[in-house]
Amino acid sequence: MLKLMIVDDSNIIRRKIQRECDLGVFEVVASAKNGEEAISLFEQFKPQVVTMDITMPKMDGIECVSELIKRDPSLRILVVSALSDIATGIEALECGARGFLCKPFTEKELSDALLKLTEGQHV
Amino acid sequence: MLINFFGKYKSIVVSIALFLLLDASVLIMNFYISFEISEDASGINLAGRQRMLSQRMVKSLVNINYYLNDAEKQQQALDELKSTVGLFDLTLKAFSNGTATIAGDGTDITLPRVDDAEGREAISQAEAIWVDYKYQLDSVLAVKTPEELVSVLPAALQYAESNNLELLFLMNALTGALENVASSKATLLRLIQTIGILLAIVNFFIIMFHFLKQLRESDEKLESARQETVEILDTVNEGLFLLDENLNIGSQYSKKMSSMFGLNEFSGLSFSQVLEKTVTAKDVETAQRFIRLLYRDDINSELIVDLNPLREIQVNISGDDAAYVEKYFSFNFTRVYQDNKVKDILVTVKDISKEVTLTKELEYSRQQSQKQMEVLTEILHINPQTMKIFLDNSFKSYDRVNELLKKPAKSNASLKDKLNQIAREIHSFKGEATTVGLSGFESLAHELEDSIAKLKDSRELTGDDFLPLVVEFESLIRHTELTRSLVNKLTAFSSELSFNDTATGGYREHDQWHALVKTVSERMGKKVDLVVSGFDIDLPREVAKVVNDVVIQCIRNAVVHGIEDPQTRLAEDKLERGYIDLSLKKLVDGSLELSVKDDGQGIDYEAIRSKALAMGRWSAVEVNSWDYKKLLPLIFHPGFSTAGSVTSDAGRGVGMDVIKEKVKSLQGKIKVGSRRGVNTKISVVLPQSLTENLAA
Questions:
Q1: Which of B286, B307, B309 comes nearest A100 by C-beta?
Q2: Do B665 and B526 reside in the same domain of the chain?
Q3: Which residue of A has its CA nearest to B284?
């Protein structure tokens, strides 16, 4: 199982992602409500996969992506954000994220995206 | 195999190999024959020396005879004779048997045996003479005393005189024969060289011909492939081109591009050059950043589809007639791989204006009909007389606002005054809409007030500042006109069909209830009959509404939770069809009793208990200790539902608690009675006072 960390300031979204991820492929090891928390939880749990919100208090998604990639360049980060500003999404990818999922999303869209994100990583 | 490795080049490889082989064999033969010729040359040389040796032998004999009285010179001649005889003998044997002799420079040399017929003949004749000759010479060389010499010398001299010429002649013949052999070898060598060169030339021409043919064939193939590409690119109804890593457009692109982007030549242009007149600079920049992401091989392209900024983009294209047409393009970017690396990006551009326009129209008409529905709902909740007065007042008010807007005003003060008057008019209109309960009007008026308030804040006013107000004001008028037209339609319906309607809501709802029971029971695979009685009592509107809400919630619950499916009912000796008795009656004390009774499975208290546990609000010990009196009220608890799964018919948990609130708001009471497996009865009692003013 791949270790996954959820980063989102909305607990509804966090719970939604957690529900979908607990289905056997991923193990949700941490869930953070802002960038700062994400960094410290990353150090503690060393997840391999991260779902990342963009707009968050205390260090936004872009900065958080850069910080996490600095610590682990092989980290697979899926940006989960509303489509209001495409350029911000692209910026997150430029900082090292590897995929983008548009909010709102269905459970299937989320699981498809996570599987594509981690292609070749499953044992 | 190596041949397979060379693939289509194998014929050239074979040709070159053949050429090298040919060259090598010519070279080897050349080398071999030259070697032989050089051996032959030494043979010729030595055959010539034999002639000289035969002459020297005669000379030595003559000298021996001449210096009979000079011992020293005689000895010299004898020595010379000895070495000459030895050398001649050795060399003749070498020619005959192919053995070694001594060359002119004193080294050993092995001669090839002479096999040439002429040479052989000369040698054997020479050998025949040489046997006797050598015997004579050896006896001369063997003498020990001068007397002995004088006795053998005349015979030797005589033999030499008579055979010397013959021997000389034979050695000449041998030389000639060897020369002939050498010369024929030289001829052979020339022949081989000539043939070799000829073969090389032939090979060269074959290679040339073959490759020219192959080149022409592959050129033809390329040309026809190019032709196909051109046809595709000319015909395809989309923009189609390749972008390289520097985001430059490739040499091949579809013809449609010209009309789409209004350019004639694209080859070598950068993506931004093509787009700069079509979309905003920001979109161009975002698109370039997006495409660069596609070149990153750690990103799955399917995971960034949503980030394509040009997926549906409004474009600014000036058509031939220079008329402005709103157009939308859809750009699609696909990776082109070569050796597992992204080499180019294939871009397809589609004109999706029609689709977008259609979607917009659909959305607009959907909004319109939704608005109409809202207006209709509002109208139906309002007293017709009130509605009529409100509409009349509205139009009067609009006329006043229109007058105000038209009134010329120049100074800032008069403009401000004008604005204030409009504000007052709109404000009182809003108040009226709120009182009547028309929230649509209320919110439109509210927006208009907001805009006016903003204008009030600005220090200097001009006539143009009123323009946005006019727009908003017009949308308010349109809303009013829509309302009026709907009211008119309803009036027309009402007079045409003249419903025998008490306007109280009463039994008009029967059909709706029957329909509800039918729909829900069919969806759940149940069979249910609804019997309605006593709803001819006139009720005030708000009471009728609560009654209707209670009936709908209760009969829905009865069908979903109460009545069992046909198999279960039959198994329990019940009638296959379930039955709901719905009645409304006036009790002796003047209060109203609404009762909903079904002959289903009754209330399942254990189901309520486990749901209560699942809700997690109470401890397990507590919940398990509850009896039915404690459990029953839970069905009125907010968020409570006992249905196994959430369907549109049940399980949403927002039913009974709302009903309870509504009944409570009318000071009514709810009673629930149930016998497990037999029935459930819910009755609602509403106090007398509610119907009194109607009766009065």
A1: B307
A2: yes
A3: A87
Q: What is the pLDDT of residues B534-560, one digit of tens each?
A: 887 778 777 887 888 888 888 888 888
B309 in contact with chain A, both atoms CB, cutoff 8 A = yes
Instruction: Check CB contact under 8 Å for A90 and B286.
Output: yes
User: Does one domain contain both B395 and B471?
Assistant: yes
CB proximity B306 to A under 8 Å: yes
pLDDT number for residue B501:
45
Query: B302 at the A interface (CB within 8 A)?
Result: yes
In a domain, A115, yes or no: no
Q: Do B303 and A119 touch (CB under 8 A)?
A: no
Residues in B touching A50 (Cβ below 8 Å): none
User: How would residue B696 be classed by pLDDT, with cut points 50, 70 and 90?
Assistant: very low
**Residue B324 and residue B291 in one domain:** yes
DSSP state of B239: E
CA atoms of B644 and B650, how far apart (whole Å) = 9
Residue A95 confidence class, pLDDT cut points 50, 70, 90:
very high
Give yes or no for B340 touching A (CB within 8 A).
Answer: no
Task: Mark residue A59 as left, alpha or beta (left: phi above 0; alpha: psi -120 to 50; beta: remaining).
Answer: left
B133/B170 Cα distance (integer angstroms): 14
| Mean pLDDT value across chain B | 84
According to DSSP, the residues that pair with B670 across neighbouring strands are B684
Please answer yes or no on whether B306 and A89 come within 8 Å at the CB atom: yes
Nearest chain A CA: its distance from B293 CA (Å): 7
Query: Do A99 and B309 count as a contact with CB atoms less than 8 A apart?
Result: no
CA distance A117 to chain B (A): 7
- pLDDT value at residue B89: 92
Q: CB-CB: which of B290, B299, B309 is closest to A98?
A: B299
Give the model's pLDDT for residue B503: 43
- pLDDT tens-digit profile of B218-239? 999 999 998 998 898 889 889 9
Give per-residue pLDDT as tens, B78-128.
899 999 999 999 999 999 998 889 888 888 888 888 888 888 999 999 999
**Does residue A112 fall inside a structural domain?**
no
pLDDT at B694: 47
- Residue B156 CA to residue B138 CA, distance in Å, equals 9
Is B290's Cβ below 8 Å from some Cβ in A? yes
* Distance in angstroms (rounded) separating the CA atoms of residues B586 and B690: 12
| Structural domain span for residue B520 | 507-695
Residue A23 lies in a domain: yes
B167 and B5 in contact (C-beta within 8 Å)?
A: no
The CATH number covering residue B603 comes to 3.30.565.10
* CATH code, domain with A71: 3.40.50.2300
Amino acid at B477: I
Neighboring chain B residues of A87 at a CB cutoff of 8 Å: 282, 286, 289, 309
DSSP code of residue B564:
P
Q: Are strands B327-338 and B313-315 parallel, antiparallel or unpaired?
A: antiparallel
SS3 B314: strand
Neighboring chain B residues of A79 at a CB cutoff of 8 Å: none
pLDDT > 70 fraction of chain B, expressed in percent and rounded: 92
The ipTM value here is 0.92
Q: For residues B65 and B59, what is the distance between their CA atoms, to the nearest angstrom? A: 10
Range of the domain at A65: 2-106
How many folded domains does chain A comprise? 1
Cα angle: B674, vertex B677, B682; to 5 degrees? 25
Residue of B nearest to A75 (CA): B298
The owner of tokens 């509605």 is B387
Q: Is it the case that residue B453 has pLDDT exceeding 70?
A: yes
Looking only at the bridges linking them, the beta strands covering B341-351 and B528-533 are unpaired
In chain A, residues 50-89 whose CB comes closer than 8 Å to chain B: 78, 83, 86-87, 89
The closest alpha carbon to B304, from A60, A93, A118, belongs to: A93
Number of domains in chain B: 4
Say if the Cβ atoms of A93 and B293 lie within 8 Å: yes
